[in-house]
Specification:
The chain is an alpha+beta fold and about 425 residues long. The protein folds into three domains: about 70 residues; about 60 residues; about 210 residues, Thrombin, subunit H (Beta Barrel), CATH 2.40.10. About 20% of the residues lie in helices and about 35% in strands. The chain has six helices and 24 strands. The strands form four sheets. It has an eight-stranded antiparallel β-sheet with strand order 9-8-12-13-14-11-10-24, with no helix packed on it. Strand 15 and strand 16 form a beta hairpin. Helix 5 packs antiparallel against helix 6. The radius of gyration is 23 Å and the shape is globular.
């Protein structure tokens, strides 16, 4: 009987331990979830990624210089390969005979493809011209090396207006994907609560707003995510950067601004006023970027990004900015709904033609980042030797459920008069 009691306790302890281990969250959890690998594998994969990116940065100018032969390059972290698309395998020596490539030769994989970079770029521009001439709406064009084709993203709700464009586009043999918005997931409900974050019944006297925190307007009709704090060199004012389109729904103050309030992770209601954003003319702006002026003395600025699910590193400190250049690289984001998630870069220089015919250039497409309704979220690569320090590489501007996110690269967000707050800035 005593043995049965001991055995029962051991089984119970084992179940409790397994349950605890199953829900243990570490710095590697978001990457492991995306790659579908054990967290113990992540450090090795990150080391592989670093080497692959170094090698691909040598490949990129060689491929670009020989754009009629090669069709772009991208890395595969799991396979530990730099994949180089080529129309002519006999020309591989252009890459392999370059002395700088010697340390990376065993990582190279040449793939026979139909389209060269020249072909892809020409088709990309031809499709843009057709979209404009045919008055197409809500068209997203992406030059994707992984599939060696131009991918067009459309919605069936625009089929009537896009009918002529679709008929013309098919002749150029792109990949057309109908990627529908799930309206039920675009915005957070007013009483949304996340059990992993602290439950805040009332805001404290002084509140730090971090990148990744939620934002809402006064009517709870618009929700976005805080990006990061920036400063103005000309007037010493602090602004919270987020997506400009967050202000589209108002309600508008007499001066045309829209007030935004803090929505911490795990909160059940509205928070403190952060400040107001001048609502931009969405038919005229080139970058979906808005600035909320800090107008509340109870709001404190900090060069940090929210990571509360990780009890060891609940905040990620911003050390600076970095531009990404390699397809296949991992990036992560912090946002109000889904918190910290990661995905890989699928394409650079994505082009969007919106319902007003306005063209947005230079976006980054990221696979499976889970970001619909989380516009404004900060985007950053995972640099293990710097962690919990991070470098901001962009800001989420849009996303679609089960598909991809689109981000504005940091180089298009920071102006000459503006600087991003980092740990080196004394606030």
């Amino acid at each position: 009987m005593k043995g049965i009691f001991v055995l029962s306790n051991l089984l119970l302890f084992s179940l409790i331990l397994q349950n605890h281990l199953a829900y243990t969250y570490t710095a590697y959890t978001p990457i492991a979830r995306y790659l579908k690998v054990p967290e113990s594998d992540v450090p090795k994969l990150l080391a592989q990624e670093k080497t692959l990116v170094e090698g691909n940065r040598i490949v990129i100018p060689l491929v670009t210089k020989n754009e009629q032969i090669f069709g772009g390059s991208y890395i595969d972290i799991i396979a530990n390969k730099i994949n180089i698309n080529t129309k002519n395998l006999s020309e591989n020596g252009i890459i392999t005979n370059n002395p700088a490539m010697k340390p990376y030769l065993n990582l190279l994989s040449f793939i026979q493809v139909k389209n060269s970079l020249y072909d892809l770029n020409s088709t990309f521009e031809d499709l843009t011209t057709l979209a404009i001439e045919d008055n197409a709406t809500n068209v997203m064009l992406s030059n994707e090396y992984i599939v060696n084709n131009i991918v067009i993203y459309l919605s069936h709700s625009d089929d009537i207006q896009n009918k002529e464009f679709i008929a013309d586009a098919i002749k150029l043999n792109p990949i057309i994907i109908y990627d529908e918005f799930d309206e039920s997931k675009i915005e957070v409900m007013k009483n949304h609560s996340n059990p992993k974050a602290p439950n805040l019944n009332a805001p404290p006297l002084q509140v730090y707003v971090l990148g990744g925190d939620g934002l809402h307007n006064s009517e709870f009709s618009a929700f976005c995510t805080a990006g990061f704090w920036v400063g103005s060199r000309s007037n010493s004012t602090f602004y919270l950067m987020t997506a400009a389109h967050c202000s589209k729904r108002g309600p508008f103050n007499p001066d045309g601004t829209v007030d935004f309030y803090h929505l911490p992770w795990g909160s059940k209601g509205g928070g403190l006023l952060v400040g107001s954003m001048f609502a931009p003319n969405m038919s005229a702006i080139k970058v979906d970027m808005g600035l909320i002026m800090k107008q509340n003395n109870r709001i404190s600025v900090t060069p940090s990004v929210r990571n509360t699910d990780d009890q060891e590193f609940p905040e990620l400190r911003i050390y600076g900015i970095v531009e990404m250049d390699t397809v296949g690289t991992l990036v992560c984001k912090s946002a109000y709904i889904t918190h910290s998630t990661c995905g890989k870069i699928i394409a650079f220089n994505v082009r969007v033609i919106n319902e007003s015919g306005r063209i947005f250039n230079g976006l980054i497409k990221i696979e499976e980042l889970a970001c619909q309704g989380e516009s404004g979220a900060p985007l950053f690569p995972f640099v293990e030797e710097m962690f919990p320090g991070i470098f901001i590489t962009g800001m989420i501007t849009s996303g679609r459920v089960g598909s991809a996110c689109y981000a504005v690269p940091i180089g298009r967000l920071i102006t000459d008069d503006m600087y991003i707050l980092t740990v080196n800035d004394l606030i």
